[in-house]
Structure formats: C-alpha cells, structure tokens
Amino acid sequence: MKVDIVKYRWFWFGFSLLVLIPGLIAVGICLMQYGAPIKLGLDFTGGTKLEYRFPQEVKIEDVRNILDRHNLDGSNIQVSKVAKDGSQVVIIRSKAIKERKSSETKLSQKELVDNDLKQALGDFQILSIDTVSPIIGPELLMAGMLALVFTLVGIVLYISYRFKRDYAICAIIALLHDVFILIGLFSIFSLVWGLEIDSLFITAALTVVGFSVHDTIVVFDRIRENSKYLGKNKSFGDIANDSINQTLVRSINTSMTTLITLGTLYLFGGETTKNFVGAMFLGIASGTYSSIFVASSLLVWWRELSKKKKINSTVTNKKELTSVA
User: Fold this and answer.
1) What is the reported pTM?
2) Which of 124, 192, 215, 257 lies most in the core, judged by the most C-beta atoms within 10 Å?
3) For domain 47-132, which architecture applies?
4) Which fold has domain 6-39+137-316?
5) Which DSSP category does 108 fall into?
6) What is the pLDDT of residues 189-240, one digit of tens each?
7) b/e per residue, 5-24, with b = 16+ CB within 10 A?
8) Those residues with Cβ within 8 angstroms of residue 58's Cβ, 6 or more apart along the chain or in another chain
9) Burial of 64 by CB count in 10 Å (0-12 exposed, 13-18 middle, 19+ buried)?
C-alpha cells in the first residue's frame, strides 16, 4: 500500500507546530522561573539529594518543618505513592548538607536531620545519598552544553558537504525540530510535575540528534537516487513520495524495535534512569516522525517554491524584453 505523505504535508507541519508552540512557551516560562529552559537537577545546580523509605505514609509538611529547623528551608521534597506494604519513599533535594569528617566528634548536620526525622516519623531506610559541589555542577552543565553544540555543528557541516543546499537545510531544520520538541516537552514536564534533568539528559539529547540525522539521510539518499527519473512523467513530489514509501517499512521497523526496548526499560527499569529512557523514547519517536513526514515534505515544498520563483522570473524577463522590443 502506497501512502501519499507529500500530499498532506500541511497536516504534518500543523501537527509539529501543535507540539512545538506549547513547548516553546513552556521554555520561556522555565527561563523566567528557573533561569534555564528546563528545571535543572542536582548534577547541574549542586547540593544534596536524599532518598528515604519510611514504613508508613509521611506528610510533606512534617518533613519540611524538620528541614527548616536545620537551615534547609527552600528544599524540594517529593513523596512517592504509598506502596502495597504501606511504605513510602521521600526524596529531598536541598543545598549541600554537611556530613561528619573522620576527625570530627560533633554530630554533623546530616546526622541531626536523620535524628529528628527518626523521632518525628519513625525508623527509615536510607536508599541513596548524592552530593554535588556547587562548583562542579555548573562546570558539568557547561561541558554538556558544549558537547551538544559541537555535535550539532559537526552534523551541520557534514550534511552541508554531503548534500545539496536545499537537502542540507531541510535536514538541519528537521534536526532542530527534534531538539526543540524534546526540550519543549521536558519544559512542560518541569512546569507540570516539577521534573528535573540530570547529566543523562544531555546524553539522551546527543543520541537523539544522531538518530534523527541518520534516518533523514537514509530517506534523502533514496530521493537523490530516484531523482534520475525526474521529468519522466514524474514530478519531484512524486519521486519524494515514492522514496519515502520505499524506506517507510525499514524506518518504522528500526524505530519500533528501539522504542519497544526503551518502553520496557521505562516501565520495568530503575527510577534513576526513567528520565533518560523517557527522553530517548520521545526523541527517537520525534526523529522517526520528522524524517518521514517533515524533512521530505519540507524539501518538496522548497523545490516547488524554487520552481515557481524561477517561472515567475522567466515570465518577468520575457515581459521586459517584449516591452523593450
């Protein structure tokens, strides 16, 4: 069955804008609230992240009161759903909490907090303690952003060398489309659910960028191969549509196997990798969509505009020659 993708290009463009516009609005709100496009996690801001499991349900207000007494006001506190056995996980993100050094005998700030939590809420199990220096955090963010920028520049240079100008520009637009959709969706998640990103998000974004370009290049290569039939009762739109259909099954099969794996990891993997796997899932789904429906449709639209411009220019020149004669 042949799918006429180019014919409905305005639908695909509209669908992309329907996702992009709310995402860009969310990015703007995040910039005003958090000073970053997405709420940054402990890896980038520095501080301490504590995870406790209590045998019973816990109220956030009780935990916050204890933290305030130890000059940890403004800490972010999250609680999980109550498990079947009645236990509940509490996640605390705060400025760096001091721990006792081996040479010290006085109770540390961390031990004082633990003692107060135990007295007020009962025994608990410490699941994890992560502390990042406020100096290392910004350096890690800068290194991640530089890696993303260098990757984008390298891919842009390669595509510009590998294809003609219109192919390259459309591939780059499709690539930016995927990056903005991923960032926009995570900005929305930050505003709605308070989601924070860590260094793994940069890794996911880099992987998504590579996957998106890879899929687009496969489709564009087929269009270029089939361009030899241009003019033989076939327009460029027909050739692009045939090329997309020839690579459609391959693209979907490749993406589906990856998405099934990522979906399984998201549902049954650990909590610490959920944001990374979720970013990969959304990014690869967006990359597959843009390669099939956006990049090629954009290329056809570009060629049609160029053709109309050339025809209008020719007609104008003929009129000028006629008027002179």
Assistant:
1) 0.78
2) 215
3) 2-Layer Sandwich (3.30)
4) Multidrug efflux transporter AcrB transmembrane fold (1.20.1640)
5) P
6) 999 988 888 888 888 888 888 888 888 888 888 888 888 877 667 788 888 8
7) bbeebeebeeebeebeeebb
8) 79, 88, 90, 121
9) middle
